[in-house]
Design a protein that fits this description.
Length: 325
Amino acid sequence: MLTRRNTPPPAQQALEEAADWLIRLSEGELSDAERAEWEYWKSSTPERSRAWARAQLLQNKLGGLPPSLAMSALDRPNSPERRAALGKLAMILAILPAGWGSWKLAESQQWSADYRTAVGQRRELTLADGSKITLNTDSAIDVLFDASQRHIHLREGEILVQTAPDNSPSRRPFLVSTRQGRMQALGTRFTVRELQPRTHLAVLEGAVKVELADNRQGTPLIINAGQRTDFSSRTFGQVSTADRNVGAWTQGMLMADKMRLADFVGELTRYRRGFVRLDPAIADLRISGAYPISDSQRTLNMLAQTYPILVSGHLNGFWIMLSPA
């Protein structure tokens, strides 16, 4: 029986072994000895059986390996490309079944966007009117400027917007949209992050007017400087004080002020390729400090030096485990 959605993933070692067998099977027919070894492996322990059930689920969804991994997997057995493919495949198996759908959607959205960033990359754009857009890691936008509007559609990820006055005769509004709603800048600087199924907005300067995608007849909400909110396509969340460090990522920093380690790890993983697993025993550990997001290994080492945390790496650092020291 396939692994249920709410069942914890199998042990890391079993997932890595399942990923290796999946790659070996994708390369062609196994010899009789290899097939006997594979048959024995997948039934030798409950953890391996569970891991292979996830591999079967991925096969059923795709009919094989994800295309972006297949070519790397066919490389030399000990090549960096193959090892990276193995680690990425183990990560996908760990987060199935929901993870594959999100991963596939994100890739398709990013590659058809006007502007995009890769994992760990940041990018600053100056638009035709002088406005500036900074894209955070793994983000994608479309830009539409015409005679009636200046429109940014955030497909995925997070952006910082610094608007400039419009000198055209029509005084075009500056709009930012997500799947959840539309925001109109009122001479302002603000961040927008789409975190399904809600959009998160924080205003640093000026104000932003928000209309919901599925409730256009409702009263718009005005968010002023120093405030933040989140919203779905139908409802607004509470308005609260914006975190003063909300834009620290534009300076390459991840700021923590008595932050749960689990929440910190969730943010850090946005900036690195690979998988970080956290022992639940230290999930609520509170941490503080300023950490570089461009060097996640350095950040992890800083945590280990300051707090009772043991950092262990596998697959050349692609898979990281944090446990009590």
